[in-house]
Amino acid sequence: MNFQIWYLLGVALVFFMQCGFAMLEVGFIRAKNAANIIMKNLMDLAFGAISFMLLGYCLLAAQDYLFGFIGIPNLGIFTDFSNFNHSDFIFNLVFCATAATIVSGAMAERTKFTAYCIYSVVISAVIYPIEAGWVWNEKGWLAQMGFLDFAGSSAIHMAGGICALVGAAFVGPRIGKYGKDGKVNAIPGHNITISALGVFILWLGWYGFNGAAAGNIEELGSIFVTTTIAACSASVAAMLFSAMKTGKPDVSMTLNGALAGLVGITAGCAYVDALGALLIGLTAGILVIVAIEFIDTRLRIDDPVGAIAVHGVCGLWGTIAVGLFAIEGGLFYANDFSEGNCVNLLIVQILGALAIAAWTFITIGITFFLLKKFNGLRASGSRNEEIIGLDATELGTNSYADFVSVKSEFVLPVINAEKQNKYDKIFKVVILTRKSRLENLSDALNKIGIFSMTVTEVFGCRMKAIKNDDFYRGVMVNAALLPRIKIEIIICRIPLDFVIDTVKKVLYTGITGDGKIFVNRAENVIKVRTGEEGYSALQEIRNTAEE
């Protein structure tokens, strides 16, 4: 087998993980922010690639290395492209993109788009390349000490998780996540199916993530085996542990469990055996649930996708686990217990993890502090913007065409105009129902002479009762907010009962959720342009656009 070809195929698999991250995050957040998170996953790759090309790669992989700490930039990609190591550059680039994209999930649904682009550049250009150089540049000080992180449990995942932790703390929780009484509220994602697809894509990509740097077919096969064992055992552990805690297996926690096992095995995939991989995965599957709940309920840091626990906590665990389970040098596999030889690797692993954590925490902390002060981190200029969703307020778009809010001026055209009668009764009728019923309802109202209405997308218009033993990511779910449309019409001199009967005939299916009709008596209607009141103010439909 030509391993240079496999090396580049592995790069392609790691690149495809960007799709997995995007799908995972989209499913774990609300529909109103889906396009925003997709855009952020795209742009952290794009901005990150450019900044890594200009500076980051030189800091990581330079042959001229200053005090084992930082590479000296030489811009060889521009000055000597024909002799440049293209394969090594693209290999390191896709790993850098992974470190940057981890942050987006933890800060989802409330982070300003410009801030996201800026800190992605900083992570890709400076923070990640310097600490990764310590690990993988042969002149890096951790590499010189014998620190082992084969594919990046600490250099990529733990570093990304720490960036996510600091960022989520700086930006604050989503509106409604924590009540004034200290209660933690569950905010369920809108599409667990998409999240599951993301996890399977990430799992597939992980074979390239862990295996791309394999030196021969035997090592590659071993990496595939340990990676699979760890992911599967972590999935089982997370599923069983979540069921023990809440009485039912939690799908989202189980998906996080699979990723936790993959993160945990990343450092030691080439250094441990099947038993080590099994124990690493089992521990990661339990650890991720404990960490998610601790971060959510104790630290009160809002992480919609569990990125801090999956990448930060389990990345740390995977790094330390190498010192325990490595076939050569691991504490549990040591043959020589004299003079502390059995713990040498473990000490190096702990020291290396602490050094990377400290560097990342300090540098990203400075970055977020400056961003918050001079640019702003929070997307919403007002509570309304966040409540409406970042798709509409930041991007002016929507991921789902049938979720788009439609709004029109509501007036009732009445055929056969009559003289003003001060005793005319005016009613405002408000209808809440499923979005799928809008077209049929609009047609029916047109047939009885109602051609204009206000149509608004609303959330939480109907509270769906949930048994008090239902949980989402370890937090009890009290109610589910269901998407609906609100239709408002004004009627005058059209029989109210006739309108209500028409609406009921269109909406009725006999299934829960058909909708509700609210009727309010309106004292008067005043047309601002002409000063007309009552029935007369509801005329001249074709001219309302001019007002």
Strands, helices and their partners?
Blueprint (H helix, E strand, L loop, with lengths): L2 H26 L5 H28 L3 E2 L3 E2 L4 H4 L6 H21 L6 H24 L4 H5 L7 H19 L20 H20 L5 H30 L4 H16 L7 H25 L8 H19 L18 H31 L8 H6 L1 H6 L30 E8 L4 H10 L6 E12 L5 E2 L2 E2 L2 E14 L3 H12 L8 E7 L25
Antiparallel strand pairs: 1-2, 3-7, 3-8, 4-7, 5-6
Verbal overview:
Helix content is 55%, strand content 9%. It contains 17 helices and 8 strands. The protein has a 4-stranded antiparallel beta sheet, covered by helices on one side. A two-stranded antiparallel ribbon has the order 1-2. The protein has a two-stranded antiparallel sheet with strand order 5-6. The N and C termini lie far apart (74 Å).
Question: TL;DR of this structure?
Answer:
The protein has 547 residues and is an alpha+beta fold. Helix content is 55%, strand content 9%. Helix 7 runs antiparallel to helix 12 and helix 8 runs antiparallel to helix 9.
Q: Percent helix among the residues?
A: 55-70%
* Low-pLDDT ranges: 404-420, 461-466, 541-547
- Round the mean pLDDT to the nearest integer and report it: 88
Shape: elongated
Whole-number radius of gyration? Answer: 29 Å
Per DSSP, the total helix count is 17
Q: Percent of residues in beta strands?
A: 5-15%
Largest sheet properties: 4 strands, antiparallel
Overall structural class, as computed from helix and strand content, comes to alpha+beta
What is the number of beta strands? Answer: 8
* Largest sheet strand order: 4-7-3-8
Order of helices and strands: HHEEHHHHHHHHHHHHHEHEEEEHE
The span between the termini is 74 Å
